[in-house]
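During the reporting period the student researcher (J.K.) took over the structure-prediction task from the postdoctoral fellow and processed the backlog of single-chain submissions. One of the processed entries is reproduced below for the supervisory committee.
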Amino acid sequence: MIDASRNVFDRVLVAFMDNFGLSRAASLISLALAAALIVFAFFWFFHSAPPKTLTLTAGAQDSIYHKVALRYAEALAREGVKLNIMTSSGALENLERLADPTHPADIGFVQAGLAGDADTGRLVSLGSVSYQPLLIFYRLPVKVTILSQLAGRRVAVGPEGSGTRALSLSLLALNGIDTAGTTLLSSAEGEEAAALLLEGKVDAIFLMADSASSATLRALLRANGISLVDIAQAEAYTRRAGYLHRLVLPKGAMDFGKNVPAEDVTLVSPMVELVAKEKLHPALSDLLLAAASDIHGRPALFQKHGEFPAPLTSEFRLSDDAKRYYKSGKSFLYRYLPFWLASLINRILVVFVPLIIVLIPGFKSIPALLRLRMKLRINKWYRRLLSVEHEAARRMDDSLREALARRVDAIEEEVNKMKVPASHGDQFYFLRTHIHFVREKLAGGEAVSDK
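J.K. obtained the following structure tokens:
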């Protein structure tokens, strides 16, 4: 088997040498380079395949983040991609996981305004997917419209690692409230915080849309003695903190029959971005954005139809793949073919078509280059023969004839040393014929130019 393979290789090598006029060493190098390119192409073909699994860091169990993540998992499963969902304490922990290059999380929901001094250089945004309104409920004898009125009160701001706590502390600090002083903070969030407020154990609670269910929000809005802060300085907050947006909870939006809330309520809200590590495969980026369009594109209390996902970012750069998607949507193949088939064809087009475009013209150009090279080599000897002819035409005597004959012999000796492929044999033999012709003319004592 080894001998047979060796014989086949030798025949291929000889054919290559004969057709392209290369030495054995040059032929071996050329074949090795071609083989290396082909091996690299196959390696890149398999290496560039999109992974079959993704890991998304979402939020607490049964939170809105977590429920939305389950919908992403369903959408990706239909295309053959498994989405692993990791629970977390909230958006801040999601950001910390994504910023850690050793953490398995690939993508996650991150609330705008949390980056701070974190190293986000290796992170990209796929765009904003929703608003995350901040709801501040209170039980106090006076109407609260500015947050400085919460100074010295008992306030639930959410647990460490949550976006709720980060935003709450930021807003309290903007109002000059020293959280290490008389204002008492609780880490309760969601249903727990709502229960403390209903029982009168805290004076105010900060809730984000992902930390409380709709039933909890309705219960708080209907409860006697509990009110929702109508933030009078909302516009000013958006100017001071560019990641915040001013939203309005319309009158009667939670219950038309009972007119809950009884008046329009002004809120502030950051956006939620779908953030990924920059190594995210382009095909999976398109897949995630297509799922986001279905999941987040529907109208809701604080958004219009098709408003999300949107190429809006605050602290992360929008990925190049996301820019392309927002500009032109899915690529042609992914628009009309199943994900696995589109990915396969796309990789063939990206890897093997350029390889063919490079190799075929490259091999085709070798004969042309060799013909030119051979022509230049042969023309060199023809120039020397012409020089002999010109000298013989001017005068002819015995001493000159002998000198010219020696020059013709030297030309023939050098020509015979040439390595010429079979494909250029005609030029070689023509040259030798002409050398013989010039020698005979010199031997006959004739002027070489006389025909």
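The committee noted the following: The chain has a mean pLDDT of 83.
J.K. will present the remaining backlog at the next meeting.
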